[in-house]
Specification:
- By secondary structure, this protein is an alpha/beta fold.
- About 45% of the residues lie in helices and about 10% in strands.
- The strands form three sheets. A six-stranded mixed beta sheet has the order 1-2-13-12-10-11, with helices on both faces. A five-stranded parallel beta sheet has the order 6-5-7-8-9, sandwiched between helices.
- It starts with 6 loop residues before the first helix and ends with a helix.
- Bound molecules: 6-O-phosphono-beta-D-fructofuranose.
- The site of 6-O-phosphono-beta-D-fructofuranose has 14 residues, from loops.
- 6-O-phosphono-beta-D-fructofuranose (F6P) binds next to loops.
């Protein structure tokens, strides 16, 4: 059942109709407990959702929609290892990667308890990470590793890249971490430009080990190493490890499968950071901190699975998003971390959310008549304030936004953190309450300028705060968004764990590759033919 088929959906629509003139100013004035009543806690995080365009009744009705859609059962189906990724006939068990304090987690398709494998890989990663960190893992010429370069793309890049930056305060600073993803050779060339091959370790991360970009970059990296060592192929074993589900492909590439860290087809690429895909992060912060991160993930998982819907952070954020997306017509959702360490978090969320819920057929393959996943975007505060916040404050678009901040800074220098957080608090206040024309006039503003200096307010935000950015709060934050995406996909009745939409472009690119270097006749449309012709002419 999708959200529009529930009885409660008509109540949600009726709420929106009767709340056409909903005003955050009025709502706060009428109810001194609004903030307290609309604040939730879980796994080190506080969510204040009071600055949203909803009242208690709308929230109740949205929760009733979730109930009617069988959300609780759907959550259980995921945690219980059922094959909810039906188009690929797979379980969806990224939650098993961090279920370290519990017992068995069974893949219902194979009947296998996946936990022994999870623990085994985690231990192998820890041993390897310790070797690299201590300098006992040596390159082919006997030098310890100084540069760790992850080669991967999508889920095999965005998670570890984002997380290695996010948890930099906990990382071993004599090691340098870099991430090469783009098939554009510039990415590789500029990354390794100042690196000594003898001190460089490549982690080739690819679930399938067939992804064009990753294979191209990995081959180029292998050539770079071999060239340095005059073609001595024994160097490969000391400078390359693989992270993959595909041992045969890894062996084909020439990496010894003894140097491979495995994971499983029940881990979706965009959910793979807590798997072996997080090896670069583990080398950076060490196995203990990595386990603390998994503990944070697990705490949020537990909360998601057990908390009643009205106290459930991921569910609440998902329902609010649905209200804006499906009722009030918002097209996008902004994520605005007020912490430089989370600079890549919006990019990470783009894949997590848009690759999961950017679908337009329901689970039975019928075209949906309701909106599905929003466009997710964002930048770290305060940079965004000096770029696109004008539109957030005075534009014609409804852009719900999540503001994410921390009470304490890892760099308590001068007044920076006070200034940062003053902006953090000021922005959601300004967005919610605006400034009326009368208030502008009362400042002596000339009448002609009054409309330009007026702020309508009523622009919805969530505020998410934690004491500090730690491995645990970080893990909990990622899990929070994973589960938010899950809930939305469940109510939109789409398959959130496949990504068929990325295939067509890949197939067409493979067809075009040989055409770019040949002179054969072209059989595309006139636009594509002409563009390929232009490329051929420039590269003759
Ligand atoms: O772009 C599609 C995709 O399949 C993502 O889902 C995935 O994270 C990425 O490519 C990389 O895939 P792989 O880890 O198999 O190289």
């Amino acid at each position: 059942m999708n959200l529009t088929e529930t009885k409660a959906w008509s109540a949600v629509l009726a709420d929106a109709e009767s709340n056409r003139d909903f005003s955050l100013r009025a709502a706060f004035a009428a109810d001194p407990n609004r903030a307290a009543d609309m604040t939730l806690e879980a796994a080190g995080w506080t969510l204040d959702y009071s600055k949203n365009l909803v009242d208690a009744k709308t929230m109740r009705d949205l929760r009733a929609v979730a109930d009617e859609c069988g959300l609780k059962d759907k959550i259980e189906a995921m945690f219980n290892g059922e094959h909810i990724n039906e188009t690929e006939d797979r379980a969806v068990l990224h939650v098993a990667l961090r279920a370290l304090s519990g017992g068995a987690v069974v893949d219902r398709g194979t009947g296998e308890d996946v936990m022994p494998g999870v623990r085994k890989v985690l231990d192998a990663m820890a041993n390897f990470a310790d070797e690299v960190r201590s300098g006992s893992w040596k390159g082919h010429s006997g030098k310890p590793v100084r540069n760790v370069v992850n080669i991967g793309i999508g889920g095999s890049d965005l998670g570890p890249c984002m997380a290695t930056l996010a948890l930099a305060p906990f990382s071993q600073r004599n090691l340098r971490f870099a991430f090469v993803s783009n098939v554009d050779a510039t990415h590789f060339a500029e990354t390794v430009r100042d690196m000594d091959p003898e001190e460089t370790l490549f982690l080739v991360a690819s679930k399938t080990f067939t992804t064009l970009e990753t294979m191209d970059n990995a081959k180029t990296a292998r050539e770079w190493i071999l060239k340095h060592y005059d073609g001595d192929s024994a160097a490969v074993a000391k400078h390359f490890v693989a992270i993959s589900t595909a041992a045969d492909e890894v062996a084909k590439f020439g990496i010894d499968t003894a140097n491979m860290f495995g994971f499983w087809n029940w881990v979706g690429g965009r959910y793979s950071l807590p798997s072996a895909i997080g090896l670069s992060l583990m080398i950076a912060i060490g196995p203990d901190r990595f386990r603390e991160m998994l503990g944070g993930y697990e705490a949020m998982d537990r909360h998601f699975r057990t908390a009643p819907l009205e106290k459930n952070l991921p569910v609440t954020m998902a329902l609010l998003g649905i209200y804006y997306n499906n009722v009030l017509g918002a097209q996008s959702h902004a994520v605005l971390p007020y912490d430089q360490y989370l600079a890549r978090f919006p990019a990470y969320l783009q894949q997590l959310d848009m690759e999961s819920n950017g679908k337009s057929v329901d689970k039975r393959g019928r075209r949906v008549s309701w909106q599905t996943g929003p466009i997710v975007w964002g930048e770290p505060g305060t940079n965004g304030q000096h770029a696109f916040y004008q539109l957030l404050h005075q534009g014609t678009k409804l852009v719900p936004a999540d503001f994410i901040g921390f009470m304490r800074s890892h760099n308590p220098i001068g007044d920076h953190h006070v200034h940062l957080m003053a902006n953090f608090f000021a922005q959601t206040e300004a967005l919610a309450f605006g400034k009326t024309a009368d208030e502008v006039r009362a400042e002596g503003t000339p009448e002609a300028l009054v409309p330009h200096k007026t702020f309508t307010g009523n622009r919805p935000t969530n505020t998410l705060v934690a004491l500090e950015l730690t491995p645990a709060t970080f893990g909990a934050l990622v899990a929070l968004y994973e589960h938010k995406v899950f809930v939305q996909g469940a109510l939109w009745d789409v398959f959130s764990f496949d990504q068929w939409g990325v295939q067509l472009g890949k197939v067409l690119a493979k067809r075009i590759i040989p055409e770019l270097t040949a002179d054969s006749p072209l059989a595309h449309d006139s636009s594509t033919n002409a563009l390929i012709g232009r490329f051929r002419a420039a590269n003759r």
